[in-house]
Amino acid sequence: MGQPVPRREGRRRGLHARGRGVGRRARRLGRRRDRERPPLRVVERARSLVGARGVLVLLREGDALVTAAATGQVARAEERLDIAATRCGDVLLERKPLRIDDVDADDRLDSAQLGVPDASTALLVPLLYRGRALGVLCAFDRIRGAATYGTEDEELLRAFAASAATAVATARSVEAHRLRAALESSEAERRRWARELHDETLQGLAVLKVLLSAASRSDDVERLRGAVADAVEHVTTEIANLRALITELRPASLDALGLGPALESLAQRVASVEGLHVDAAVELDGAERLPAEMETAIYRVAQEALTNVAKHAKAQRVSVRVDREDGRVRLVVRDDGVGFDPDDPTSGFGLVGMRE
Questions:
Q1: Are residues 157 and 62 in the same domain?
Q2: How far is residue 89's CA from residue 340's CA, in Å, rounded to a whole number?
Q3: 149 and 282 belong to one structural domain
Q4: Do 167 and 31 belong together in one domain?
Q5: For residue 124, what are the domain limits?
Q6: How far apart are CA 103 and CA 80, in angstroms?
Q7: Coil vs helix vs strand at 65
Q8: Is residue 222 part of a domain?
Q9: H/E stretch holding 61
């Protein structure tokens, strides 16, 4: 005979509730904060879903599986596992889930390599995305209910793994895009400096050469003195231009005096060159300076933001504020210009550079 109706109904409701849990956890993986660290979010959600003592996610890199994240009672796992030599590799290549009721009896599953040396049971599920096997989701030992993983656990984790694979693939795509954008931004910056040096410094030196060459062919003392005076004036101008370029590359005040004076100097330069009213203030508690790399990052972001304001915002006033809030340093650049939609695609590299 079949199960009594109340028991079947209870089981059906339980499956339905767990299915809703899969949907909720899968949707959470699509949130922006979860997309930033998808492997960690994947193992956390998976562990909660099947009640595992420990969960790992292994991602494929060439001929190896690399531990991307782990949660629960998992010690330090080996960083790389040979796909051809492990049961996890079998699951990856065969693209089928596998339940293991006795880990010790499986000579191709070395639980110690995965940081769970005393594991008894396991559930291994491939991460599949558009026909590609990206990795393997590994759950060890149930902490509630039955001692071993069952068909229901396999179905739930396989359904969750489908969404998890999408999240991992999306994160990899975003990271690859960020890397390309960062490289393009860096290359664009190099081209800009090459143009600056060509258009100003090299052309200025060419003019200086012409002045001195003409003077060297003259026997007129007054004319020679005039040419030398012109050359000295020209050299003075070029020195000032080079100093401005060097300051843009690395302001001396940032190293010598710190972030506050450097931003104030930047604000003054932008105001004088662009005709903007720029107000800068650094309000950090304590006299201790921020780490050098943090000061540099804040300065560069502020510099790029002010450049964007001058080029695109059609603003009259702009403020730059740096303060500390909840243990974090915050930079706010605000102008009274026309604004823009941050979600609109852009062909420039300014925002990309600031994000990086």
A1: yes
A2: 48
A3: no
A4: yes
A5: 11-177
A6: 20
A7: strand
A8: no
A9: strand 52-61
| CATH code for position 351 | 3.30.565.10
**What is the number of structural domains in the chain?**
2
* Residue 48 in domain: yes
The total number of residues written for the chain in this structure: 356
Give the CATH number of the domain where residue 19 resides.
Answer: 3.30.450.40
User: How confident is the prediction along the chain (356 residues), in pLDDT tens digits per residue?
Assistant: 444 444 444 444 444 444 444 444 444 444 444 444 568 888 999 999 999 999 999 999 999 999 999 999 998 877 789 999 999 999 999 999 999 999 999 999 999 999 999 999 999 999 999 889 999 999 999 998 888 999 999 999 999 999 889 888 888 777 777 767 666 666 666 676 677 777 777 787 888 888 788 778 878 888 888 888 888 888 888 888 777 776 666 677 777 788 888 899 889 988 988 889 999 998 887 667 888 888 888 888 898 899 889 888 888 999 999 998 777 889 999 999 887 766 665 544 455 555 55
The two most distant CA atoms of the chain are separated, in Å, by 122
